[in-house]
Design goal:
Blueprint (H helix, E strand, L loop, with lengths): L1 H8 L2 E9 L10 E8 L4 E7 L8 E6 L2 E6 L11 E7 L9 E7 L4 H14 L9 H17 L1 H6 L12
Antiparallel strand pairs: 1-2, 2-3, 4-5, 5-6, 6-7
Length: 168
């Protein structure tokens, strides 16, 4: 989810969070809530949970004249439900009931596409353009910033809110 947030909102400039493990009481979070603002001004709200009894994946991107809502994941367990994309077109004349189109996906070629792109990168000696190790580092640094933005969580686990600067 953090990768998708960075993809659509851009790099995150500001993070506020609440991170807890009050339910399972293990040494990892069972709920993380983060309110963030990107460098471009996009506001992002993230809730990641291990206490919701039903697996869920939902990403809502709200724009000035509509929205895109992604739900479900085509996983082997099928526990995240049907994978769908809802496109919403808002107008001044929809009276709160905008036009929507739902597309359901029954086939996920993303893994095969990623492997093919990776192999092509190696065979043709091209630079990595998607999902580089630097991109992964930036996503993990954002996760760490979410942990550190909750003072209680940061202090409890002895985290330092000083993250080394990102280099490209």
């Amino acid at each position: 989810m953090v990768d998708l947030i960075r993809l659509f909102a851009g790099e995150i400039a500001e993070v506020h969070s609440i991170v807890t493990n009050d339910f399972w009481r293990h040494d990892v979070e069972d709920n993380a809530y983060a309110l963030m603002r990107s460098e471009r001004g996009a506001v992002v709200l993230l809730h990641s949970t291990a206490t919701q009894w039903r697996h869920r994946f939902s990403l809502e991107i709200t724009l000035s004249k509509g929205a895109i809502i992604l739900s479900g994941i085509l996983s082997g367990s099928k526990s995240y439900g049907a994978e769908t994309m809802v496109v919403v077109w808002a107008s001044d004349k929809d009276f709160g009931d905008p036009r929507e189109q739902t597309t359901r996906y029954n086939n996920d070629p993303s893994w095969a596409n990623e492997i093919s792109e990776f192999a092509d990168t190696i065979i043709r000696n091209r630079p990595v353009t998607n999902g580089s190790s630097l991109d992964a580092l930036h996503s993990m640094q954002l996760v760490y910033r979410i942990y550190c933005a909750d003072k209680e969580w940061r202090d409890r686990w002895g985290l330092s809110d000083q993250i080394p600067p990102m280099r490209s």
